[in-house]
Design goal:
The chain has strands spanning 2-5, 9-11, 17-24, 33-38, 44-51, 56-59, 67-72, 77-82, 91-97, 101-102, 106-110. By secondary structure, the chain is mainly beta.
Length: 112
């Protein structure tokens, strides 16, 4: 499958960001879509996932309460929204299917 993410974002602390992950080339409902992020000099950090077939989500405890992952089966698109941004949320965000197909990454920079 092919995953194409929306472009870089610059946000102020306390605001929100929503990233789009458009997919093609496979059955969108057949596999979880996962979101991970990587801050500069850090490893990959798993954030959460969604089952597009029924919308069931699972989030890492760290992001509970400010992370929302959704999926639109009509457009084969997944979304990741992160609220209450802080400087520590500056990172490249990726969507992935089966941890085998990856989006190109979206740079989110949080700066005052």
């Amino acid at each position: 499958g092919r995953l194409v993410q929306s472009g870089a974002e610059l946000r102020n602390p306390g605001t929100s960001v929503k990233i789009t992950c458009r997919t093609s080339g496979y059955d969108f409902s057949s596999a979880y879509i996962e979101w991970v992020r990587q801050a500069r000099g850090q490893g990959l950090e798993w954030m959460g996932k969604i089952d597009p077939e029924d919308g069931e989500t699972k989030y890492a405890e760290k992001f509970q309460g400010r992370l929302t992952i959704t999926a639109d089966t009509s457009t084969a698109t997944a979304y990741m929204e992160l609220t209450s941004l802080s400087l520590e949320d500056t990172a490249v965000y990726f969507c992935a299917v089966r941890m085998a197909s990856w989006g190109q990454g979206t740079q989110v920079t949080v700066s005052s």
